[in-house]
Write a structure and sequence with these properties.
By secondary structure, this protein is an alpha/beta fold. The protein has eight helices and twelve strands. A six-stranded mixed β-sheet has the order 6-7-8-3-9-10, sandwiched between helices. Strands 2-1-4-5 form a four-stranded antiparallel β-sheet, with helices on one face. A two-stranded antiparallel ribbon has the order 11-12. A hairpin with a 2-residue loop joins strand 4 and strand 5. Helix 5 runs parallel beside helix 6.
């Protein structure tokens, strides 16, 4: 039988997790609880442990100490390959090597593969879902465009559509706005906001080190510094001038206007 979520409202639960590699502590007693429909941001300077923590939440790494439960399944007691099928994962460094179209790339989300599976034919329902997701991400006009001809922003939106093909309850986004120009970033963030509004039961975790890359729908935030949690909770209580300055060890002023955050140097 395929694995099913048994989270009862708690989608992610990390309890005092450490991750030690080659004698170096990458995560230090990190705890977090993420509920259905919450949209978390993991924020901190380079090397703070954001992507490392996301790797555990995506079932690609196990903590050295502590416990991590994902959709009700505890790491170490579950088949991680089956668990990953319940998680949508978006990595801007997607290792696609062939010149597939946007539609083909999105359809690979149905098989959980990078390339199209030989002799696999998508069902009519899968084709229809792919087209719906392509439209949701604002890519209908580019559905037949091929990967090498897509802009970085178009690639990012195509990969979000791909991650949503299996209708996962959890979506993880690792620095989705990396390398985007201003217009592409705004289109991507708007698409994420639309997605979250259309799927109130979807839970997301997004990694970034730029507050300007946070969608307006961000509900919660965690500040990480040197692998430890500096602050965690509702976004407006965490993303303050004092806490963000401490996190980056640099004086900044945090403001929020029209739902979007920004940081400027100095207090």
């Amino acid at each position: 039988m395929p694995l099913v979520p048994v989270h009862h409202g708690v989608v992610l639960n990390a309890d005092k997790i450490d991750l030690v590699r080659a004698g170096r502590t990458l995560l230090d007693r990190v705890s977090m609880t993420v509920l259905t429909g919450e949209h978390w941001a993991l924020i901190g300077p380079n090397g703070a442990g954001k992507s490392t923590l996301l790797g555990i939440l995506g079932a690609y790494a196990h903590p050295t100490r502590g416990t991590a439960e994902i959709l009700g399944h505890r790491l170490g007691r579950v088949n991680v390959h089956e668990l990953r099928t319940l998680i949508g994962q978006v990595n801007p460094r997607h290792p696609l090597e062939s010149a597939r179209t946007v539609r083909e790339i999105v359809l690979t989300g149905a098989t959980g593969t990078i390339e199209l599976v030989p002799r696999w034919t998508p069902s009519e329902a899968e084709r229809s879902r792919a087209d719906e997701l392509i439209a949701l991400m604002g890519l209908t006009a580019r559905a037949d465009a091929r990967w090498p001809h897509l802009s970085q922003g178009e690639r990012g939106r195509a990969l979000i559509a791909r991650a949503l093909m299996p209708d996962p309850p959890l979506l993880l986004l690792d620095e989705p706005a990396t390398g985007l120009d201003l217009a592409a970033r705004e289109r991507l963030l708007a698409a994420i906001d639309v997605l979250r509004a259309n799927r109130p039961d979807l839970t997301t975790v997004l990694v970034t080190h730029h507050l300007e890359e946070l969608p307006t729908s961000t509900s919660h935030a965690m500040l990480l510094r040197d692998g430890a949690v500096l602050a965690s909770g509702p976004a407006d209580r965490v993303l303050t001038t004092e806490l963000v300055s401490a996190c980056f060890d640099h004086p900044v002023t945090i403001t929020r206007a029209n739902g979007r955050w920004s940081a400027t140097a100095g207090h």
